[in-house]
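Forwarding these from the shared drive since the link keeps breaking.
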Amino acid sequence: MIRQDFARVDPKRRAILDPKKKQFASPSYKPLDYEHRLNFYTQPPTAEITLEQFEQWAIDRLRILAELEACSFRNKTPSETTAHIQPLLQKYLPLVSNTSQSSARHIERQKDHYSHFILRLAFSSTDDLRRRFARVETALFKLRFQNDDARERQAFVESLNFDWDVVTEEEKRELGPDLMAATPGLKRLEDEGWFKVDWERVPELVENRRVLLRRGKAYVPVREQTSMVVAEFTARLEKGLELTSRALPRLDEDDRLTPILSHLSKNFTTPDSSFSDSEPHLPGAAINAASIDTLSQHFPACMKNLHTNLRKNSHLKHFGRLQYTLFLKGLGLSLEDCLIFWRQGFKNITDDTFNKEYRYNVRHAYGDVGGDANRRGRGYPAYSCQKILTEHQPGSGDAHGCPYRHFSIDNLTTMLQATGVNDRDVLRGVKDDIDKKRYHIACNRVFEWSHKGEIRKVKEDGTWGAADLDTIVHPNTYFKRSYLLKNLGKAGRDGDEMES
């Protein structure tokens, strides 16, 4: 007789397994309601989004963070920073209040939540990136906190359940004279309340001597609640970034996310952007082979250097030609005019040599020849500042690249002075920016000095807003903005938007 094993599963019958022993159980996540416009980002996102949303949401947030950092580098006041950032927030990262009936409220808060955590992944790899990310995210949170509705802001703070010790009436009376002395503008002790926290949690208040310190505790008046909330936000964010950095090795196996995150982290040096070839070109501007010399007065330093070297040597090496050709293409120069421009520039060679060695490359950059993908895509896009800074480093005899990064400070100073930049404060500021590797800020500093009169005029007239004068991160934007400012009233302004 064969002994039957009742523990075995009959292959002809469906197995009924103990649910406690399931190897792959579907996780049940708590849905996020986003009750408040402000967010401490303590709960990681769990719902699914597309790869396109993953990348675009992160890029939009990176634009805001880059502008905040640029405002800091330029020593803008808090009011100037708020005026500059608010229009950009409305454009790229809007958040409506709880009283709004907008149907987009949930998706706006979801975008804000997800984009924070995506960039947290991208900027957790090194200590430097973590410090910079924490600094600009704290600045963004502080700006939003200060400009939020008072009632909603208080409801948000109460929802956080901070472990702040409220100073009792007895302790208040005991420390009354000291508390009064440490709180400027306070006339009566009964008019203010205090919290008691570890002094390390409010370093900004300690630094500015706005709190009383006693036995390792800081006595913080209620009016300084913003500093306490911001300090708590920073502490939690830094802890979260440290935990994220430990989990990063697990992401190496996902070949979909790693390239995107790597690209985002590189863009924290200079935000990447591409100039849209579909934009209308400058009205009233004659852009042809004969006008490039005249238009070169509006070129950024990188393109001005290429143009000067071409006119001086009647030649540019491969990457210099490619960088300059794509820039001219972005200006609206037609393929026919571009070929004429290069043929006239390479005046020391014969037509046969030009046609054999250089003509095809120009046509390929415009998408006139090459594979189907190149022709369908109309060739290559114009190089952004980020691409110029990070790719194809120039060698001996090369003229491409970014002068603010690849020139010695003496050569750069000579070049800037030759173009009319003689202000000592500007040159000193450029040197300081370069020492701190803020190359695009140095370029923007020169632009703002060269166009200071025109910028003041459009600000006073109200014809240009903060979004029209945001940080330049593309050579073609530099040219277009310079041309429009120098020709105010002579040409209409179609805007100089950048699309990523």
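-- next protein --
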Amino acid sequence: MFFLHNLERTVTLHPSFFGPRTKEYLTTCLLDDVEGSCTGQYYIICVLDSFLISEGRVVPGSGVAEYTIQYRAVVWRPFKGETVDSIVSSVNQMGVFADVGPLPVFVSNHLIPPDIKWDPNATPPQYTDNKDQVIEKGTHLRIKLIGTRSDVGSMFAIGSVKEDFLGSLGEF
């Protein structure tokens, strides 16, 4: 689910960048450091604006200055039970790995409907029901998130396609 968060970040600036364009450089550093990153709880998708840049504080002994920047950002946090669209990145006999934007998701073969079977002889290897449903690399897949795991700078999820209206979305 997407949210709008007010966040804060401390940026250090070398003395060679002091001058009339300091605020512009700080905003550029903020965008480069933050956009597309994962905090372990959510992904920062986009920085909308930086609405407060503090006065610089010189760090004793080094000469660099620290600025605290408060900004608004659009963030995405995946929740257990959320239904998402993904693209399959790899398929093996244990299950399917898919990407939901920056979030990697694993769908175990136990969480795939029983009529869709693993076919190792196909090229490329795939799960298929020998009719219209095929799950292979590059397939668009609708997944329900069963659980999420957070690490310090990353997230991972387990998903299922065993319910109604889930599974292969066909070719796009």
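Residues 22-34 form the longest helix (13 residues). The chain has one helix and 13 strands.

- D.
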